[in-house]
């Protein structure tokens, strides 16, 4: 025989014991409990009792715990199978441990079983509306903690009536209250397709009264701040309706179309305070916010909570109770006819210390418990900026999970642009909603004419300043004050490496999940780390640089960010960034040029001994490697030693060799090798393709076929062919993968250069080689008469035909020109 101590949920008082055999069934235990309590359980059949194992987080509840009345059964195991033997459900004599007499006398003896008693419906006083005439005393037990002596406490019935009189059904306020709340929602069809299967399974399990957690999906919207989590929750009913329509289940579709939506948040007006409203009832942090949505008199949140506590001190207002209240308010006679969508925003605001006793875990567990056992058909959706506490909270649970990630926004569809710099800035926001809203607010203060005359550098800096206010956690973080951390993050983005969510970034302690929680970063569907270009620029400004290199790099960065450049100039800058990101770090050649297709390059490691600068050759240079310590004269004073491995040379115009070249240090197997890396930038006419013959010709004129690394970069399509060893190709299909957040800059370099007759002063002065004086002279001359062609410009601006200035003017667009593309 085994002695089990029991307590009735919601009833204050001492526990009681029953004796049963451990081979008895759950049904036998119910009968023993009824027999022990003939008066309290009069007129209640034994099979109507609900039993729970009174063990939470591996520890039995104690007699002291239940003395004042237990109301929270969240996370407890319910004994549902009547034929189950007691020894098989954790109630064997071996498991039910005894304590010594002193422990028992102190009230620390274990309680083994909690009993939920279904009480009859009771009639309320006459004069009450018919739809409110009955309430379930199982949900509102009258035997809660007794009032203190001398205190006057209204009966539960009176509290119930006051509560109902203070509530009415209201649709939720939007969780997203920013300027983008009315933008057309993007990505609905993809998200609905992701939801259809788990939604249909959840509905079937609910319909069959199957409470197995593996059938009931908790929907989790996890992404960084400013990416559209709140907007997705606002759109959730539409998404669920679309998913239900795809399921071809007519009843499910009707239910979702008629669903009641509750939207609660731990941010904004009902933010978390650092502690739960009731430590013993984590559900209250959800249910009170649900009632706040229904409140007729919209008081401030703290005032509402205080009033509700005083007015309803005897009512255990759990989530299910709120659903029952809504049923009564709407005159629905059977809760099972209802469908509810519960959206919980901002879970990351709850205290989380990684344990199962923290607020985050307990609130999420209470939502899951409601989801699995709700009498109404309930869909639950929670959002947070980080995933690690969610995974930890559900690590021991078979609860089915559906992870939803807000899709990147197509910025040009929500933010129409009028000028070239506006279009570029929209691209630079990386599809992040909050960043696009910030940009929209900035641009709204200026007309098109004002924007065209505005210094792009000033504009870019002002947008960055506005983003610093919106994403303060990034810019105030000590992590991003360290240049070497910034370099590790940049390398992680450029490498296109597939990360797991909890992998660390390079040699830092930062995980992908934590990095994503800052905002402006994404963890892509294929595991790649992504970043908005505008943040990438700020990271690059913090990169470690050699003495004397800061101004050079920052100026180069500014030109690349804001000014049109030739394609080979852009590719050279991108290669320079890689030299800084991977400086002194051995990396596989395939990873260094991630996104490109290569021939055989196994076991080839490249090490950049120092960061590089970009120089332009004054003449056409041979780009094939040779044994001599070659020097090429450039646009800088003096010459450059290629063997120093600290430069990237842009070859002279119309060179028959490669467009870019540099000496690199490789390790092939165990052998250290120095050779040239040659990059050919090839623009082709529309519909032309790179085939094997064309590739071979470009390689033959540019690289030493026995030793050099050769990379052909083109926006054209390429046919399928095998590449030779140490040879790579970036074609149209590889462009986005290779250039990543720099892709829009790459495409911009294909556009025609600024027109000398229409470019603003700031556009002109930012062109490499054009200073304030030259820009002012161009504008002064064109006000007299437009420049018709290059010859006209040379005659009027540079009568002496100086080589450098003539070369600069040759790269501008003129009225007589026809665009090449």
What multimeric state do the chains show? single chain
The CATH class label of the largest domain is Alpha Beta
In the CATH hierarchy, the architecture of the largest domain is 3-Layer(aba) Sandwich
Strand fraction band? 15-25%
The number of strands is 30
Unreliable segments of 5+ consecutive residues: 121-151
**Global geometry:** elongated
Number of helices: 32
Short structural description:
The protein has 32 helices and 30 strands. Mean pLDDT is 86; it is low at 121-151.
Model description:
Keywords: Secreted. It is found in: Host cell; Secreted. Pfam families: Crinkler, HHH_3. Residues 2-116 form the Crinkler effector protein N-terminal domain. This protein is of the alpha/beta class and 821 residues long. It has 6 domains: 2-116, Ubiquitin-like (UB roll) (Roll); 121-137 and 154-165, no CATH class; 187-404, Rossmann fold, CATH 3.40.50; 411-470, no CATH class; 566-739, no CATH class; 761-810, no CATH class. It contains 32 helices and 30 strands. Helix 7 (236-247) packs antiparallel against helix 8, helix 9 packs parallel to helix 11 (319-329) and helix 16 (433-443) crosses helix 18 (456-470). The radius of gyration is 35 Å and the shape is elongated.
